[in-house]
Amino acid sequence: MSEAFLPMVSSYFKWKPEMINSIDLNKCKQPKNMKSFLFLLTLNCMISFAVNGQTVKLKSSEGYIQTKDSVRLFYRLLGEGKDTIVVFHGGGFGSGYLIPDLTPLAAHHTLLFFDQPGTGFSSVVKDTARLNINRFVEDVEIVRKHFRIRKMKVLAHSNGGLLFGYYATVYPDKVESIILINPTAASQKWKGTNRLDSISQLILNQNRKIYYAAPIDSIKACWDYYALWARGKFPTPLHTRRIWGDVCHCDQKNLMSPFRFYSIQSMGKWDITAQLSKVKARTLLVGGDKDESPVEAWEEWKNSLPNSQLLIISGAGHLPYVDNPGVFFSAAEQFLQNKWPDYSILNTKGAGVVMPTDKKGTAYQKARAEVIRVENEIVRLVNKAAWDSVATIYATDASILAPGSPPVSGQKAIASFWHAVSLRGMHSIELQCIDLEYSGEKLIARGKYVMNNKQNEIIDIGKFIAIYKKEKNTWRLQTDVFNTSMETRSPIEVPDYLNFPKN
User: Using an 8 Å Cβ cutoff, are 175 and 279 in contact?
Assistant: First the structure.
C-alpha cells in the first residue's frame, strides 16, 4: 500500500497505520457500521493485492557523472549484491556490448558499468588531449570517489583490461580484486591475428563504407558492419549468434569517431609488465584459446602480476562468458568468494550458478534458484531422451510456442514435440538463464539455448522466454516460447532497412 494512502485512511478512521496492517477480518465480529466493515474488506483486498502483485526483478538504475571539465560519464548500476564490481568495457566501445551477457553476475553482485569518455552514451570528445591515458586514470578516480568505493573489485575486458592495468599501476592501493577477460597484451610485442577469411573481409570493407556514408538507418548499417567484424572474435561465425550484447547500442557519433581508440594510442609503444609487479590485488585472468590474441600474451600478464591465476577455456574466443558461460560464471563466482577456481570447473554445465545462500536470499535469488533447478532438470531429461518425464516438468495446461510450428499444448503433445525435435537431429541441449521477473503467481524468465547433434556440432542457437506459474509453492513451466537466432528468409525476422526511399 502506498505511503500516501495509509495516512489518509488512518486520519479518516483515527487509526494508526500499524493497526491497519494487523487487521484479521476472520476474527472480526459484524460491526455496527456495515459501511465501515465493507471498507475494511476492500482495504484488506487492496493490501493483499499490493503485496502479491509486487514486481520482483533485478535492481537497475542509470545516470551521469559530470567531470570538472564538463564531460558527462554515463553509468548503469545493475544487481542484487552488497558488493560492487566496476566493469571496464573494451576501448572504443561502450558498455552496451557487455551488459546483457554479464547480467547473470548481477544475481549475486551489483555491477557498475560506465562508458569511458568518447564511447557509449558518454560525451562525444574530439580533443585528443582529453582522451589520453592519464586523463583515463583521472576519470576512473572520479567514478570511484563518486560511488564512495574505497577499494574496487574490477572486471575488465579486452582493451579495457590494458587500460585498467595501467590505472592499477598508478593506484594499486585502490584495487581489491581483478577479473581480466581476454585483456589486450601488457606489452606491444604480442599482436593478434586477423581470423577473417578473404570473402568476409571483402564484405566487411563494403559494409564499413555504407556505415560511414551516413545511411538512412545508421543502426541497421552498424549491425551489418559489426556482425561481420565480430566473426573474428568467435570460434566460428555461428558462435556470434550467442551474443546478446549490442556494440551499436550507443551514441552513433561516438562509435564513428576517429579518436575512440586514442586512450591506448596515447600510450605509444607500451609495456607495463614491470609496473604490474606493484599490483598485489588478487587477479583472475580468463582467456579463450580460439581468440585472435595468443595465449602467451595472457601468460605474460600472469607472470607480471604477483597474485594471479590464469584460466584458459578451451574452444572459446574473445568473449568466453558468451562461448562457455557455464565455465566462466562458475570460475568468476568462485573467485569472488575469495577462492581460486578449481580446474574441475572446466567441465561445468548448467543453466546458471546457484549459491547455497540463495534459499534464504532475496525474493529474486530464491525464484532464480528455483527456475535454474527446473531448467537443469529439463536439460537432464532431454539429454536422456526421457520425453514423458520432460513433459511432467510442464503444467498440465502448458504450451510450447516454437519457431516454424503451431502451438503445442498439453503434456502428451509436449512429449511428442521434444521427441520430434530429437528425430530432426537434436542430441543434447544447453540452457542459460539470463534474467527474470515475476509478480504474484506469474514469473517470466529469459535465456539462451543451444542445440547440438551427436557429433556435438551446433545445429541451432536461439533465445527463449519461459513463463512459469506457481502451483503449491513451486514454479511450473506454463508457456515455453523460443525462437532461433539462425539466419532465416523471413522479411519479418531479417528486415532490410537500407533501401528506404529518400522521402
Answer: yes
Tens of pLDDT, residue by residue over 118-155, are 999 999 999 999 999 999 999 999 999 999 999 999 99
DSSP assignment, residue 122?
S
DSSP codes, 41-75: HHHHHHHHHHHHT-EEE--EEEEEEE-TTSPEEEE
Does residue 354 contact residue 334 with C-beta atoms inside 8 Å? no
Other beta carbons less than 10 A from residue 3's beta carbon:
7
If DSSP codes are grouped into helix, strand and coil, which group holds residue 19?
Answer: helix
The CA distance from 337 to 218, in Å, is 43
For each of the domains in the chain, give its residue range(s) and CATH number, in order of start. Answer: 5-52 (no CATH), 60-195+222-347 (3.40.50.1820), 356-484 (3.10.450.50)
Q: How far is Cα 23 from Cα 16, in angstroms, rounded to an integer?
A: 11
Tell me, what's the pLDDT at 29? 44
Q: Yes or no: say if 263 and 167 are a contact pair by the CB < 8 Å rule.
A: no
Of residues 491, 489, 499, 492, the one with CA closest to residue 217: 499
Of 309, 307, 352, nearest to 328 (Cα)? 352
Q: Which pLDDT belongs to residue 3?
A: 35
Query: In a 10 Å sphere around its CB, with 0-12 CB exposed, 13-18 middle and 19+ buried, how is residue 201 labelled?
Result: middle
Phi, psi of 136 (to 5 degrees): -60, -45
